[in-house]
Design brief:
The structure holds two protein chains of two kinds. About 5% of the residues of chain A have low confidence. In chain A, β9 and β10 form a beta hairpin. In chain A, about 55% of the residues lie in helices and about 10% in strands. Chain A is an alpha/beta fold. Chain A is built from 34 helices and ten strands. Chain A has a four-stranded parallel beta sheet with strand order 1-6-2-5, sandwiched between helices. A three-stranded antiparallel beta sheet of chain A has the order 4-3-7, sandwiched between helices. By secondary structure, chain B is an alpha/beta fold. Chain B folds into two domains: about 160 residues, 3-Layer(aba) Sandwich (Rossmann fold); about 130 residues. Helices cover about 45% and strands about 15% of the residues of chain B. Chain B is built from 17 helices and eleven strands. In chain B, strands 4-7-10-3-11 form a five-stranded parallel beta sheet. A two-stranded antiparallel sheet of chain B has the order 1-2. Chain B has a two-stranded antiparallel ribbon with strand order 5-6. In chain B, a hairpin with a 4-residue loop joins β8 and β9. In chain B, α12 crosses α13 and α13 runs antiparallel to α14. The longest helix of chain B is centred in the middle third of the chain and has 19 residues. Chain B starts with 8 loop residues before the first helix and ends with a helix. Classes of the chains: A alpha/beta, B alpha/beta. Chains A and B meet through α14 and α15 of A and α3, α4 and β11 of B. Chain B: InterPro entries: ATPase_dyneun-rel_AAA, CbbQ/NirQ/NorQ/GpvN, P-loop_NTPase. Chain B: One of its GO terms (molecular function) is ATP binding.
């Protein structure tokens, strides 16, 4: 009976190669791998055609899925190679780390203790270093994937703590390297021969563990005790050749076995909780540091490269770089590649390395291919060094029901998960695209932000632009949202209803309504409208109401493109507009200038919305409101001016009334600032309009020309202030217009006399076709 | 003490080079005085096995120097690129001194640099008397470097006209210099290479043709990363200046150097060191080299006209001269800086007063 401890570095391609070679030589009958025993049943999937790394084991606490932990594996992870070996040689494989049931249990206990302690004594200093969200403290709706949670989870995966206390750094310094990482790479990962590597690793780590003063870490001790327990268990089961794959740091602790009783005592009475595991796809960018992720590796793409081509002297890598550059229209010749490889090798020789590592290759690329400019290096980093790649998980792997449903939809709608973003333009008139849009909107409602919606260019409300990019962390969101229902529709419905009933602001609920309608969940829409109605009734803030009106009107006006019944929305829009009309005049009094500006924007949007509704009654009451505002001397002048303008546009206030209103507001008795504000409101954004609208023009023109000389001089600064808001070309044209007698271009009357109706009618079918009516015969004859 | 104003690197650091050579067991590229490792040590500084201390010549990233040396070892030419005053010429001089023991094979690139000064010229008296013979040929530094297997240096490569620049292509790729007049050629001996420098600030320079660019590995020398690094550079260079100028003044106080470097860094980066206040940047580059010359200037003033100690008044004129390159724009920038930043610093009162008096 023999036990072989293989100390490795997680995601180390050299380690993976060594493990593979070692296992093939040793032919063990059982492999013990550092990892959570709860995931033992998942090991059977290793080697499955559809389980393609990078993948991760996701372990979570079913009653609070945010308490989760990932164990990622790439093709070049030693653990992955060990799993594959076990699978292909049909031998036993087991995970042997401290069960997560206990880890989570301990964390929960600590959190509970802390919460209790905090209640007892607010000022008491907390000794606990673990940072986990105590269960039940935050309602599920508020949960999100805090990165803190990730790092806390990832601490389990550590093997060589980085940071100043990185023990390997001591060895690296002794060897004359300035970085532990680089030393390890050159010592172990780039090595081609594997003579006695594991013994060397063991000796090195042993020396470190002996020499370095260390703080006693209970969790660490427990983990190692459990690993030893697993080894003993395997021995007891009479396995002959036991291979143990663990982080290098743990190797010495597993080699020398302390008394069995000590370990057992230590492991006695640990708290427990329920843990479930599943395989999820993972990405390289998640494997790297870039995601702000504790124990990542800096260069997954590069590791994959040296895993696949261990003997590459840089030629193959440089060829990849050159290919990438050429794709980006950067001229890169073969000579460039040759020179870069030579420089990299010269650098390696200068630094006494047997062959160039990533540093040397990067420096050579920078110097030869990029002419010293580091901008292109970012491209290499993204495309080659990290290389965004996503793994794949077979559909048969048992997953939570919501996940299954999502996968089913993804398959059905042909929306694959990708690590890089992909853009989709959906034509809502097509069934598949409509379904896709519905599906994506539902995910949005569930706060799974896989897709991002963009404004579509071009006309038409039947198009939607989406950008999809999958993030493995969505798996947690999905599990978490699983508590709301087993299908996307179900979960979205109950989740949104719950959120809506718990959030107070009208805007939020309206936003939800906006996304709920395209998600085609009528149950939600009803609840939300009800909720909006209640909130609107209770809201005293007319501005808040005004803010939501445009989006509601949009829904009721364009909702029918999506075949949604918009009548429901119509009702509340009407009642809300009524409410606004009643309280708006009061809201427009005593408003400071800077507060008036945003209000003007609201007026603008509101007016647009009203025009869009095309409901005479509503338009009427809106115009009445405007009249009140413009007539009320207490209204903020800028708003009053703007209201008058809107009335003028609607041809309600014309001729004498308008001139009167105009001169009253602009009379000299008014304080200049107020008059200026009024005019500013009145002429807001209408430089071009002033040029083209003869009536508006003549009114301003007449008013200016009838001013007395000294009064003109007094109001001149005010006019200047208003006109300075117009663009320079507009001002120039206005000036020209004044110069040429003030009449400007007169509109040419179009003659309607000699139209040839017959010829005109012949063109109509084509026009109808252009407008989308396929069957021109539907038209009445001779139209 | 001889009366040479400035010695070449290989003369000034002859002892260091000698010690490095003694302590150099590795394999040397042909015609190199030192192994590549030792060249890097010579530039970056360090302690030799026999306890001899090599002073650092370039303070900054060791990796950059390694790339530079490795480039020369692969017989690719080296292009040092960067802002004015980032030690390009300094590095090239020391590289040439350490590799060939000779930093004198130099061509200063100007708009008027002609093909004759890059390849070869003719001694017209001889040409008329003897006809085209080898004796009538005037060798250029490049030609000599090729024959002797040494490093030739070309300063400000981008100032040379494009047509003249391109004469380097044959030299760099075929390593030969044809002399059609004599129906012969000069073939480069091993060890020959070219270090060119160019700065990326000047406008109207002649961009290298891509054919020529391809023959160069580019190393961009950055402005110093940290405050401490920059102070270190200024202090070392000023001390060596004192030695050569035999100034009677006291050693420059590190405090004064720190203040100058602070002013230069703040103005260069357009933000105060604490990152709180945004500043306008003047038109000049405000490189480390200029900081060095300001301190040198101040030292000279203090030594010959002052009390021998470097103080704010001695430095003020130099600082203003370095910052205010444009009499209108930069002056405003400087005054703004003076009033908003310098004035508020309690311990900078003397600097403020000195600068105010001058302005």
């Amino acid at each position: 009976m023999s036990v072989h401890i293989l100390g490795i570095r997680h995601h180390g391609p050299g380690s993976a190669r060594n493990v593979k070679a070692f296992l093939e030589e040793l032919q063990p009958d059982i492999v013990l791998i550092e990892g959570p025993p709860e995931a033992d049943s998942l090991l059977q999937w290793a080697g499955h055609d559809d389980l393609r790394p990078p993948v991760a084991i996701l372990a979570y606490q079913p009653d609070s899925p945010q308490k989760a932990c990932f164990y990622p594996f790439a093709a070049f992870s030693p653990e992955w190679q060990a799993m594959l070996y076990a699978k292909t040689h049909r031998i036993h494989a087991r995970f042997m780390d401290l069960p997560l049931a206990h880890v989570f249990g301990m964390e929960n206990e600590a959190a509970a203790k802390r919460a209790a302690g905090a209640q007892r004594d607010e000022t008491q200093k907390e000794d606990e270093t673990q940072s986990t969200t105590p269960d039940g403290e935050t309602p599920p709706a508020e949960l999100n994937n805090s990165t803190e949670e990730f790092t806390a989870a990832e601490l389990d995966m550590e093997f060589l703590p980085r940071s100043p206390q990185d023990p390997v750094a001591h060895l690296a310094h002794a060897a004359g390297y300035d970085d532990g990482e680089r030393w390890w790479e050159h010592m172990f990962e780039y090595r081609l021969g594997q003579e006695q590597v594991f013994e060397a690793v063991h000796d090195a780590m042993h020396a470190l563990r002996e020499e370095l003063p260390r703080r006693y870490d209970r969790k660490e001790a427990l983990r190692e005790a459990w690993m030893r327990k697993c080894i003993r268990q395997a021995e007891k089961e009479m396995f002959q050749r036991i291979a143990v794959i663990c982080g290098a740091w743990h190797a010495p602790a597993l080699q020398t076995m302390p008394k069995q009783k000590d370990d057992n005592d230590r492991l006695k009475g640990l708290p427990k909780t329920k843990v479930e595991c599943t395989w999820i796809p993972w990405t390289y960018s998640r494997l790297s540091y870039e995601s702000g992720y504790g124990a990542g590796i800096p260069s997954p793409g590069w590791y994959e490269h040296i895993w696949e081509h261990p003997a590459d002297d840089g030629t193959r890598w440089m060829a990849l770089v050159a290919k990438l550059f050429r794709e980006q229209q950067q001229d890169t010749s073969v000579a460039h590649v040759m020179e870069a490889v030579r420089l990299a090798n010269a650098l390696a020789a200068l630094r006494h390395y047997p062959r160039p590592g990533l540093e040397e290759l990067n420096e050579a690329t920078l110097s030869v291919l990029c002419n010293g400019e580091s901008i292109l290096m970012q491209l290499i980093r993204d495309e080659l060094i990290v290389r965004n790649r996503i793994g794949k998980v077979p559909t048969e792997v048992p997953t939570p029901p919501l996940q299954t449903d999502i996968t089913r939809w993804q398959k059905k709608l042909r929306l694959p998960q990708t690590a890089d973003f992909k853009d989709y333009t959906l034509d809502l008139r097509k069934d598949t695209d409509l379904e896709r849009s519905i599906f994506l909107h539902r995910l949005q409602l569930l706060e799974i932000h896989w897709g991002k919606r963009f404004e579509v260019s071009g006309k038409g409300t039947f198009k939607e632009q989406w950008r999809l990019q999958w993030d493995p962390a969505f798996s947690i969101d999905i599990i978490e949202k699983g508590s709301w229902g087993n299908t996307v529709a179900e979960a979205a419905t109950s989740f949104v209803i719950n959120t809506a009933n718990n959030t107070g602001t009208l805007q939020q609920v309206c936003k939800m309504l906006e996304s709920a309608i395209p998600a085609e969940l009528p149950a939600i829409v009803e609840v939300l409208i009800h909720r909006i109605n209640n909130l609107a009734a209770a809201s005293g803030d007319v501005l808040q109401l005004m803010e939501v009106i445009p989006s509601l009107v949009n829904i009721s006006r364009y909702g029918n493109v999506r075949k949604t019944d918009a009548a429901l929305v119509n009702n509340i829009t009407e009642s809300m507009i009524g409410r606004i009309c009643i309280s708006l005049p009061a809201a427009c009094t005593a408003v400071a200038d800077d507060a008036a500006l945003p209000l003007l924007d609201l007026f603008f949007a509101m007016n647009d919305a009203i025009n869009l509704v095309q409901d005479n009654e509503l338009t009427g009451s809106w115009q009445e409101t405007l009249l009140i505002i413009s007539g009320n001397p207490q209204s903020a002048p800028m708003i009053a001016g703007y209201a008058s303008r809107l009335l003028f546009d609607a041809k309600i206030m014309t001729g004498e009334t308008l001139v009167k209103a105009f001169s009253v507001s602009m009379s000299v008795a008014n304080p200049p600032a107020l008059a200026a504000a009024w005019l500013e409101g009145f002429l807001r954004g209408s430089g071009t309009l002033l040029l083209l609208d003869e009536e508006l023009w003549s009114m301003v023109h007449n008013w200016v020309s009838q001013l007395e000389n000294d009064i003109f001089i007094q109001v001149l600064p005010l006019l200047r202030r208003t006109f300075s808001n117009f663009t320079a070309p507009e001002r120039k044209k206005l000036g020209d217009k004044v110069k040429h007698g003030g009449n400007g271009t007169s509109i040419k009357a179009t003659t309607t006399g000699d139209i040839d109706y017959e010829r005109g009618a012949r063109g109509i079918p084509v026009v109808m076709q252009l407008l989308g009516f396929k069957d021109a015969k539907l038209l009445p004859d001779g139209a | 003490m001889s009366d040479i104003l400035r010695y070449h690197a290989e003369q000034l650091y002859a002892q260091e080079l000698e010690e490095l050579k003694k302590d150099d067991p590795g394999k040397r590229p042909q015609n190199w005085l030192l192994t590549p490792q030792s060249v890097v040590t010579y530039l970056i500084g360090g302690k030799l096995k026999n306890g001899f201390e090599v002073t650092p010549k370039y303070i900054g990233s060791k990796r950059l120097m390694e790339i530079a040396v490795a480039t020369l070892a692969t017989d690719r030419a080296l292009l040092l690129y960067g802002l004015p005053g980032t030690a390009k010429s300094w590095v090239s001089e020391h590289l040439a001194a350490a590799i060939s023991g000779d930093s004198t094979l130099i061509i200063q690139g100007t708009a008027g640099t002609s093909e004759e000064s890059v390849r070869y010229g003719w001694n017209y008296a001889r040409l008329l008397a003897e006809g085209p013979t080898r004796n009538a040929l005037v060798e250029t530094p490049v030609m000599r470097a090729m024959q002797e297997g040494k490093i030739a240096r070309i300063e400000e490569l981008t100032r040379i006209g494009a047509d003249v620049q391109d004469t380097l292509i044959t030299i760099l790729s075929e390593k030969t210099l044809p002399i059609p007049e004599l129906n012969t050629e000069v073939q480069a001996t091993k060890g020959f290479n070219i270090i060119a420098t160019a700065n990326n600030r000047d406008k109207g320079v002649n961009e290298l043709s891509s054919a020529l660019k391809r023959r160069f590995n580019t190393v961009i020398l950055p402005v110093p990363d940290s405050m401490e690094e920059e102070i270190d550079i200024v202090r070392r260079r000023v001390e060596s200046f004192e030695k050569t100028m035999e100034l009677p003044a006291e050693k420059p106080a590190i405090e004064e150097i720190r203040r100058i470097v602070t002013i230069f860094r703040e103005l260069r980066n357009g933000v105060t060191l604490d990152g709180k206040t945004k500043l306008k940047s003047p038109g000049g580059t405000l490189s480390t080299a200029e900081a060095i010359s300001v301190v040198n200037n101040g030292l000279t003033l203090a030594a010959w006209f002052g009390d021998g100690t470097l103080n704010a008044a001695d430095l003020a004129a130099g600082i203003i001269g370095a910052v205010v390159k444009d009499p209108v724009q930069d002056k405003l920038v400087w005054q703004e800086y003076l009033e908003t930043v310098v004035k508020t610093r309690e311990e900078w009162k003397d600097v403020y007063r000195a600068c105010r008096d001058l302005a």
